[in-house]
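Sample intake sheet
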Amino acid sequence: MPINDEITSLTDPTVALDPPPGGGSPPPPATTPSATEPPAQAAAAADATTARPVGVSAIRKRAIAAEARVEDLAKELRQTRQSLEDAQREINNQQRTAAIDAALIEADAIDLETTRLLAKAADDERDNKSDPRIIVTDLKRRKPFLFRSQPSSAASAMSATATDDSTASIQAAAEAAAGGDRNALMRFLRLRRQL
């Protein structure tokens, strides 16, 4: 009998391996010892033919327990895979949020939490496939009041000239104030306060 058939017969509950207690078919007839066999071998042969198969029910119980264990392990594996997928989704979500935060900080957002919520909502509308910098740029275009305004290059050039002029004015007022003129001292203090 092939091994697979033996396993099937052991695990199939419809196959009766053990004879029912108190009845059933009689054991096979014992062979009579021949004259040429020694008495010890003849006794062992007689015991082997009349003895009931030992451990068949134990094998069946172990097979059933093994099947239950396999089912438990398969269930545990499915749960582990599900928790792994959940953890991977959470990691991806955290990485996406970090990328959006970096883009918002780079764009100089005033309120990071509010702009993050708006950027994540826009990102969800785009199925989380857009570049976070594009999302933030779009948000900055639509809602510029959420971001600090960047001074233009012309304004910074003008402020540098104004600073140079005011520094010269303060120096002139300081020299005049050093002469003891009260009006020159007041002018010096006003100019200094304005800077």
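Comment: The mean pLDDT is 76. The two ends are 103 Å apart (CA to CA).
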